[in-house]
Amino acid sequence: MLQKNPLSLHELREKISARDSKALRVFCKQEHPAAVADAVAALSADEFWAVLRHAEPPQRAEIFSHLDEDLQVEAVRTLPRDELARLLADMSADDRADLFKRLPENMREAVLPALAHAEREDIRRLAAYREGTAGAVMTSDYAALPPHMTASEAIEHLREIAPDKETIYYAYVVDERRKLLGFVSLRELIVAPRHALVGDIMHREVVFARVDDDQEDAARKIQKYDLIALPVINGDDALVGIITHDDAMDIITQEHTEDMEKLMAIAGSHEVGVYLKTPSWVHFRNRAYWIIGLAALGLVSGIIIHSFETALAQMLILALYMPMVADTGGNVGSQSATVVVRALALREISPKDALRVFLKEFQIAFLLALALGVLSWGKVMFLSQGSDIPSGYNLVQIGAVIALALSLQVVTAAVIGAMLPLAAAKMQWDPAVVASPALTTVVDITGLLIYFGTAKLLLGL
């Protein structure tokens, strides 16, 4: 049962100072582990452990697992080796391996001998997988059953191992070599006849990931097939772990953060929840590379404008509508790039679909160009009535040229916005990186060329 009035930070410190063990024990027991983690995160290391030592060992490990990764490392620096070993032993296999990989080398070497052999081997095995793969995010705490076991024996077996497993709602059927044969749900075991064999009631068609698969691909499978967990197998088709739905949510959140930051040309590690903890210099370094490079490329826009300086001097009205053309092109290109990058991320399309994507975006852009062309012509006619127009020209003619240039810019920007991410994917670059603001710079340049080229050709400037 949750507390109706959780302890505030001030009250928590008062309980620590008063050595009120009962209140701290109740706080750790009745609050959700994530809420306890949030409360103790602002405490010093000594205060932190003064609270967590009042929690039962499994509960303490769960609370600790909800802490920020950097805070976990800082907190265990003050722990004696044996206490750190006990904490690691109580943590789930994937959380334990993640913490171990972040520990300084001297702490890893010191704590390994204090762990049981099975836990040492489990850490070494999980920590060996490359970051970003399914193997690196899986847990080895899964429930496995042999095919010759009866339903009643399987239920009894799951009852015994449940405290040490991440989930028992799916049990994976394996042979003597741990080769994955199928899976069975707890519900199916309960409703099956007591003497039915697991091998007879299991599902043989299993959705799985391999240890070297990208972690996002594995998470997408959990999302697509509404799985509680996804089995992970090695090159010999042996079951080595599972990825649970909560880990999949974390992966998808991390990938969304990465895609969003790459979409805005931000470099770096793209971790979740580190904005305030990251030094300003690191933020500068992550952002400056692309921004400065694109600003330098933006000098091309200045060169184009300078080359058409005479045309602008002859017809000043053209300068008034340059921002409209540039902004419209940027907006249309960004929309196209966003939907294409998203479709690539969800595996809806691939570079092989370039022609289909081109035709679809061209059709969309053509309709947008018609609507925006009429709108821009009306805008010129309304806002520029009475403007100083050079002899030999009229406002209707100039408005039509501006509308045509804008329409061509819309079509061009949409096509560029769609093709750039596909080209990047074809070259095995990250499509999000080229989408924006690189796209904006490219569209600005092409827009100016279209705008002045159209005016020069049709108005004879």
Considering the chains and any ligands shown, give keywords for the structure.
461 residues, MgtE N-terminal fold, CBS-domain, 3 domains, three-stranded mixed beta sheet, 6 strands, elongated
Question: What is the secondary structure topology, with strand pairs?
Answer:
Layout: H1 9-17, H2 21-30, H3 33-40, H4 45-52, H5 57-65, H6 69-76, H7 81-90, H8 93-102, H9 105-111, H10 117-127, H11 134-137, E1 144-145, H12 151-161, E2 170-174, E3 180-185, H13 186-191, H14 198-201, E4 209-210, H15 215-225, E5 229-233, E6 239-244, H16 245-263, H17 280-297, H18 299-307, H19 309-314, H20 317-320, H21 322-345, H22 354-383, H23 395-426, H24 431-435, H25 438-459
Parallel strand pairs: 1-2, 4-5
Antiparallel strand pairs: 2-3, 5-6
Helix pairs in contact: 3-5, 5-7, 8-10, 15-16, 18-25, 21-23, 21-25, 22-23, 23-25
